[in-house]
């Protein structure tokens, strides 16, 4: 093959020391792939909310200090003392970051030659790196004509959105509620629900976001910033009968407000008063933490309720390889339609360490998403 | 039979009108029992926390006003406006109260003559009444020598405590956490766990309560009022491996603190850092609301967690009649040992409507329990 592997690959690393977060770019020696492995030149990797916990965590970026050189900056930022107990398990470990990405296979082991030169997507961490060694079996070859940017978000958002519908069905519900619903993931979920005939209540935080989703065919959109929010939500829940929500916000009163509105909707059809509230089970799964404040539940929604954390990977393990593969295949088939992602900006590894840019992607603003291209400017 | 049924039976009623709670004693015409029914002269009925929601709800008893006569008082108390939305389903309905009780069968239908003159316990509401018509099949005959007071709390506390152990096993846990653990129910649960070899972490709110439980053989008792509470709880969770808690408190930070301590305990054995926290599922079931403030979860315990409401009746339905009957039979066998209850005071129906006494039983103080004897002073 014509391509000569470089000796080293730059990797973005996140390390927590006593009271501080440190981000840096570390050159890592690049080995030859094993028989069943390939070397992917990573060309696009998104910064998802699910990456930010590991990358930034609770550090105060407004107080960040930059040292090092322009090509190899080092950023340090203080971590408030209250969060250090939770940081104990990762203390002093230099951790690579980046759940998923896509790029070109530039070297392949003897059993993986068929992938050489192909564009592939992969998941598994450490994707904020110039090169990443991946098992051939873990690569998802992109369809003809797809770019690395097209394939960068093949896993986390598409599989999460598809899994929400699977969980809904598995747990006996017939309609869904989603928060931060104008996000890339939320727009995907709306397309899935429209295509699969699943009633979806989209909760957004501005009229602009509501208009965006309505423009994409969403039927039940409620704006949590509107004075009529509680009434609007109740009306949407009565219309759809949704009794399960996936919540990306996590903090504040929203999860409890959803449960309360579900309870009001359930009681509309109740024949007699039950002192313990309706017997309809109401479920909120918190899968993100866009609002890092505590979750506040006033429990004014009877006793048949549950709020819990939800993660994609354990769910995929639980449903088994065959069902999970079916979901992946649907993503590949509909990559440029149902599962299309939109990015606010493409940045280099060095730019990912500039405090003003960190502040921008760490804002977790709905609909904004940053894409790292580890070869930009390199 | 020698006993002549009276024409009416006094019933305690709770009614919510616009902004007000009204408690009163209502004479209700007493009919003859059907073939498969009995008339129980109720002699003892506990005021459980699970009764207080229906009986008092969010009313402000400190502003209660009494009218009517000494024998037939009427109490009214304001309900803060914020709670009226939740009261809508019961508005203007005169509701009988009292989940469970015990007494003597004073009349019986043709198919229930075998119960005549027997002491029985029953569950099903409206037990704060002088006489209650019950299906014979729903009566639990008390063992020889047991008084009505002995049998008054046969169902709610004993079956709840037994069910906690059942849920623990059904959901794959091997040890339990319980809050307000010095309550009558908590003391029962401690006796069950000691007898069944289930490690139990008892969370109490004072050193006095801790001493009480230790005196009853409890091995893992932690006092949430102690400065070392978090460390003590972590140590108890590491020692027991408990990953499920039943919480009677509900409000404030306790449920979250339990999850955090479970997460710390789970991470003690983790080999590698997971950005999403441990994969050990951590469960808190809230089955009471001794603290009526919102539940506050800081979510510093990974993603594998769930907090939910828990109610006895749906659980008994779910496990099926045979298993539920097995639990009931154990209660009858161990009524005066494992399932013995202790009462602070026996009160009449009229006393149950005196504001100072309402304040006393509505305090929900751990270890204090009031028993209504509807024939006291009658």
UniProtKB/TrEMBL annotation, chains A, B:
Species in which this protein is naturally found: Glacieibacterium arshaanense
SUPFAM superfamilies from the UniProt entry: GroES-like, NAD(P)-binding Rossmann-fold domains
Keyword Oxidoreductase: yes
Protein name stated in the entry: NADH oxidase
Top-rank taxon, per record: Bacteria
Keywords: NADP, Oxidoreductase
Any one GO molecular-function label of the UniProt entry: oxidoreductase activity, acting on NAD(P)H
Xref: InterPro entries: ADH-like_N (IPR013154), ER (IPR020843), GroES-like_sf (IPR011032), NAD(P)-bd_dom_sf (IPR036291)
Limits of the Enoyl reductase (ER) domain: 19-372
């Amino acid at each position: 093959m014509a391509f000569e592997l470089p000796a080293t690959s730059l990797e973005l690393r996140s390390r927590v020391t006593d009271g501080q977060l440190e981000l840096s770019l570390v050159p890592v020696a690049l080995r030859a792939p094993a028989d069943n492995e390939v070397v992917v030149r990573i060309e696009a990797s998104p910064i998802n909310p699910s990456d930010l916990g590991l990358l930034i965590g609770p550090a105060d970026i407004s107080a960040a200090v930059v040292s090092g050189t322009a090509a190899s900056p080092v950023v340090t930022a203080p971590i408030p003392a209250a969060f250090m107990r939770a940081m104990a398990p990762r203390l002093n470990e230099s951790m690579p970051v980046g759940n998923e990405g896509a790029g070109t296979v530039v070297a392949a082991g003897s059993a993986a030659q068929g992938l050489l030169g192909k564009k592939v997507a992969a998941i598994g961490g450490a994707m904020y790196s110039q090169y990443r060694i991946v098992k051939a079996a873990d690569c998802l070859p992109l369809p003809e004509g797809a770019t690395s940017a097209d394939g960068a978000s093949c896993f986390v958002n598409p599989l999460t959105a598809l899994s929400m519908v699977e969980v809904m069905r598995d747990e006996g519900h017939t309609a869904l509620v989603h928060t931060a619903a104008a996000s890339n993931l939320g727009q995907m979920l709306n397309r899935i629900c429209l295509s699969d005939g699943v009633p979806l209540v989209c909760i957004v935080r501005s009229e602009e976001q509501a208009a965006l989703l309505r423009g994409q065919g969403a039927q039940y959109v409620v704006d949590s910033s509107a004075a009529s929010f509680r009434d609007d939500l109740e009306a949407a829940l009565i219309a759809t009968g949704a009794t399960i929500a996936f919540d990306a916000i996590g903090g504040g009163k929203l999860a409890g407000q959803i449960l309360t509105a579900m309870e009001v909707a359930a009681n509309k059809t109740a024949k007699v008063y039950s002192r313990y509230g309706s017997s309809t089970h109401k479920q909120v799964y918190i899968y993100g933490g866009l609002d890092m404040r505590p979750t506040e539940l006033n429990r004014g929604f009877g006793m048949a309720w549950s709020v819990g954390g939800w993660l994609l990977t354990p769910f995929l393990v639980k449903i088994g390889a065959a069902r999970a593969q079916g979901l992946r295949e649907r993503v590949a088939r509909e990559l440029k339609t149902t599962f299309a992602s939109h990015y606010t900006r493409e940045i280099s590894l060095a730019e990912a360490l500039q405090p003003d840019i960190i502040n921008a992607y760490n804002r977790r603003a709905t609909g904004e998403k940053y894409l790292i291209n580890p070869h930009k400017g390199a």
